[in-house]
UniProtKB/TrEMBL annotation:
<feature type="signal peptide">
    <location>
        <begin position="1"/>
        <end position="21"/>
    </location>
</feature>
<protein>
    <submittedName>
        <fullName>Hydroxyacylglutathione hydrolase</fullName>
    </submittedName>
</protein>
<dbReference type="InterPro" id="IPR038536">
    <property type="entry name" value="Alkyl/aryl-sulf_dimr_sf"/>
</dbReference>
<dbReference type="InterPro" id="IPR044097">
    <property type="entry name" value="Bds1/SdsA1_MBL-fold"/>
</dbReference>
<dbReference type="GO" id="GO:0018741">
    <property type="term" value="F:linear primary-alkylsulfatase activity"/>
</dbReference>
<feature type="domain" description="Metallo-beta-lactamase">
    <location>
        <begin position="62"/>
        <end position="274"/>
    </location>
</feature>
<dbReference type="GO" id="GO:0018909">
    <property type="term" value="P:dodecyl sulfate metabolic process"/>
</dbReference>
<dbReference type="InterPro" id="IPR036866">
    <property type="entry name" value="RibonucZ/Hydroxyglut_hydro"/>
</dbReference>
<keyword id="KW-0378">Hydrolase</keyword>
<dbReference type="InterPro" id="IPR029228">
    <property type="entry name" value="Alkyl_sulf_dimr"/>
</dbReference>
<dbReference type="InterPro" id="IPR052195">
    <property type="entry name" value="Bact_Alkyl/Aryl-Sulfatase"/>
</dbReference>
<dbReference type="Pfam" id="PF14863">
    <property type="entry name" value="Alkyl_sulf_dimr"/>
</dbReference>
<keyword id="KW-0732">Signal</keyword>
<dbReference type="Pfam" id="PF00753">
    <property type="entry name" value="Lactamase_B"/>
</dbReference>
<dbReference type="GO" id="GO:0046983">
    <property type="term" value="F:protein dimerization activity"/>
</dbReference>
<dbReference type="InterPro" id="IPR001279">
    <property type="entry name" value="Metallo-B-lactamas"/>
</dbReference>
Amino acid sequence: MHVPSKTACLLLCLTLTAAVANGQTQVDPDVALKMLNSQQQQFERQVVKVADNVFTAVGFHGANTSMIVGTDGIIIVDTLRGPSSAAKALEAFREYSDKPVKAIIYTHSHGDHIGGATAFAGANRPDIYATETFGSAEGVNKVVNPVKMKRNVRQFGRDLSAVERTNRGVAPAQTADGDGGKGFLPPNMLIPKEGLKTTIAGVDLEFHIGPGETDDAMFIWLPEEKVLFAGDNFYSSFPNLYAIRGTAYRDVLKWSESVAKMAEFQPHVLVPGHTMPTQGQETATAMLKDYSESIRSVYDQTVAGMNAGKGPDQLAHEVKLPEHLENKPYLIEFYGSVPHAVRAINSGLLGWYDGNPTTLNRLAPRTKAIKISKLAGGTQKLTEQMEAALAEEDYQWALELSDHLKWLDDADKQLARKVKIQALRGLAAREYNAPNRNYYLSYANELESGQLSEVWF
């Protein structure tokens, strides 16, 4: 099963419309909303039978969980975020098998895949499989957890109202997170770097190391059933090569190579970490090849631009998906974003400095704001320019001007804040990239409620 044909057609038509825009993820508000609503079908709650003995539960939380039925037990692949959502998925699975859980597999260590293990394990303690490097998913020092948590809430729109919520790109807008992580069980069967072939409950399985969204990722292959569990290295959206909540560099080249390796198996069924499974050897293989190519293309274009002396700001507006890939429904930028990926690749390979000596020691924000104000003809003129940009729906420019005005002692800072709120909501309405949309709206709400400091960080 893949995207329903009507949905695929709608997404394609809307994407073609979007392509006429500015090359980013900003389109007409009605188009953006229709695109996000169409994507919603990718995580409607259901159990999908992907093979005679393989079932995938979609929509019980943000991620997927799967059950493989063996001779004397079942194998669970990923366990959702917490025991409450996992228990509901298990209840749905029990309509197809009442056999005991013999093993649990973690495709990687992100919390939405490992937090519900106790619900599946019950009183038993089945073997739990993960990579030797399990736990290295984030890689960011814990000292920045306070700001990461704030940005996480914004990216996923966790505090948005029902009216503001759409979805998270590859997950529903709302999930039961109150018990997140409380059902985690540590792995006791660690997969070495060369992988592992084994038999569990009479089912032949292959574990293959495949770094991508995380360094500790692996994919699972069922040679008899021709089913491939991709984890979060594949889902129906352009991949999140960088998460705006804040992550360490995700090795983009390795990610592309891992997906290419998956394609070599020519699976009859492709089970992603999020969104609907895909059935059909030709379709599933083509999707993996396209996915790998899209990642590699963004990487290659970015590296070529960097070596030509171009900085991330320029490249973020220049790098595009190849024409034959840009309108594939499973590569629409609902979750990941090409511009974000470009900036992440630049930073990951070269660090923060773009090579331009002008940026080696930038002016302090307040100093630059004063000089911009003088250039505009004074604070009042700068204010007028900000208001004009808002009136013309030039929302990004209105944002940037408001950020200058907030530093000026003689500026109307309340007006600047008000303009920034309106501009953020204007941008949000046009976004079909869910993290961008959620972040704009969340930040606007924080500004309006007074949660943010005078410098608005």
